[in-house]
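worker-03 picked up job from queue 'complexes'. Input manifest follows; two sequence lines, order preserved.
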Amino acid sequence: GEDVEQSLFLSVREGDSSVINCTYTDSSSTYLYWYKQEPGAGLQLLTYIFSNMDMKQDQRLTVLLNKKDKHLSLRIADTQTGDSAIYFCAESISRDDKIIFGKGTRLHILP
Amino acid sequence: EAGVTQSPTHLIKTRGQQATLRCSPISGHTSVYWYQQALGLGLQFLLWYDEGEERNRGNFPPRFSGRQFPNYSSELNVNALELEDSALYLCASSLRQDRWETQYFGPGTRLLVL
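worker-03 finished. Artifact:
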């Protein structure tokens, strides 16, 4: 069945790079997403990648996709205190299909 | 421009009762999505409405239902409430053609079932 797995916690020093990893089981996944949830600020879509791409970069964010291993990662360069949040990995098979989320990774920034 | 709004912000019910949650999408958005965020279970997709019709639903029992009105606002109804229905219910909206790529989320309704 469909499943998305991610580690629950990650601690990173301010200024370092954060790498949040995610694995998914459905090889039919076409769309892969990263969402960010901050306390009091709701949930927002950070970025997404199509399965025909290996990498997508957007300012400090880099998404890497390894389709063979069904592995998705989100790299945040120069991590700042404002990056402290829960990051959800998600996938969907098509634009008309439901979206499946991981349980979220809580990113903690150390001073 | 007003964002996605949800009401009420908090709701307390007892087991067996019914809960109704409301969502108003961003003006111009015709697609509305509902999610449940329960402790320990992460974020789960509940329902998706597109121009008044239910387009897809997650793995939830039929006592979770909803509808979308002609003005594209939406209601989520949960019948025969159970303790494990306690969660934050998030609503999101998007333009029909953008689907998941540009969803905007509301602040959520926190439902507590006693």
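worker-03 released lock.
The interface with chain A takes residues 40-45, 48, 55-58, 90, 92, 99-108 of chain B (CB under 8 Å).
Residues 14 and 114 of chain B are 5 Å apart (CA to CA).
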